[in-house]
Structure formats: structure tokens, C-alpha cells
Amino acid sequence: MNSLTVLVPFYNEEKTLxxxxxxxxxxxxxxxxxxxxxxxxxxxxxIADELEKQNRNVILVSTKQNLGKGGAxxxxxxxxxxxxxxxxxxDLEYDPRDIVNLFNLAKKEKTMxxxxxxxxxxxxxxxxxxxxxxxxxFSKLFSILFNCKLTDVATCYKLMPSxxxxxxxxxxxxxxxxxELLFKYLKTGNNVLELPISYIGRSYKEGKKIKTSDGxxxxxxxxKLKRKN
Length: 229
Description:
Layout: E1 4-10, H1 17-27, E2 32-37, H2 44-54, E3 58-62, H3 68-76, E4 84-87, H4 98-109, E5 112-116, E6 124-125, H5 129-145, E7 158-161, H6 162-166, H7 177-187, E8 192-196, E9 199-200, H8 212-228
Parallel strand pairs: 1-2, 1-4, 2-3, 5-8, 6-9
Antiparallel strand pairs: 4-7, 5-7
Helix pairs in contact: 5-8
């Protein structure tokens, strides 16, 4: 079997959530979509509730307190009933049509496949050069530290065997979860593959959440992992 679940953790995404999930539903390649409301305090929960009512393959769960992305994945992972799972942010920066290619390769190679915003010549719009070059730097550093060749470690699109995700407990609640996911998967002895994806970055005014402090935390966490391993 080659079924697929998509996890959509969200926090205060009332402006983009409905359109983001609708784009997923239009693909019709998922067995289930699990919406994880990370204690939003805007209208996001009402939108998600309506999506669940309208679609039989949409499941909504809510945390009792804000847990961050890693905590939200821990909260919902045991609900996954498919062979593979992919993470999709509730904003509109990523095009879910790219998941099709990721899924096809993952089924063939039986491993994690991530979407790279730096490989190939897909349509991309980067609003902040500091974020663009920081992501390239972190990807290069991660590759050196952990003996791999990855161009986009901070990408949201990580598609993997569900058994891996369900058997992990993630300690990182902020954006460090992107590093923790990759590091723990590589520790299993399996390769991580990449495919080009498109990307339309949003501005801070539009709700972009990653900050300079997250970049510093990224760097410290990578160094900590290297020292411990």
C-alpha cells in the first residue's frame, strides 16, 4: 500500500487556512488531512471546523496550549493511518502540487524526500535576501556537519514513511524541528532525497513568522547536535 497523510499544523492563520487546505483537497491524492490547531486565538479554528465538516477525509484536532510546530507534530502523529506522511504549512508559500513528485519518488525509494527551494528552476519569489542566504548557509553547514548533501534543510516539505514519524518524540518546539527531523532520519541510516519545488515567500505583514532569533537558534541547535553525536 502507498497511502498518504498530510499534517497541517497551524497557529493564527485565518487569512490563508481555507485556501491552503482547499489547494490540498483539489489534488485528491491524500487519504487523510489532519489539521492541528495549535491553540489559535483568531478565527482559524472556526475555518478548520468548517473544512472538517465539509470533507470526510479532513480531521481536526486542537492542542490545549500552544506547543509550537514540533509539539503539534507530537500531538497528532499517532492519528496517522497511512504509509507516508508529509508536512504542509497553512500559509500559501508552498504549492501542494509539488507533493505529487515528492510522493512518487518516496514510494519508489522508500525513504524521506524533501522539497528544495534552491534546486532546479521552478517559480520562486524570495522577499528577504537575508533569509534566502541564511537558508543556504544553514543547509551547507548541516551537510558538512552530518556528512550529507542537502540544499534546503529548512524546507517545510518533508515527506517520509509514517512509521518513522510515529516512532519519534520531538524535543524542538520551534523551527528547530526542521533540523531535528532530518537529523533523526539520517541517524536511522537512510538517505534523504531532494526534488525541486516552487516557492512564493510571504512578507512579515502577511504573517511570516520566522525571525533572526530563529536563525540563531538554528545554528546553536546544529552545533549542539554535532557535539552530542
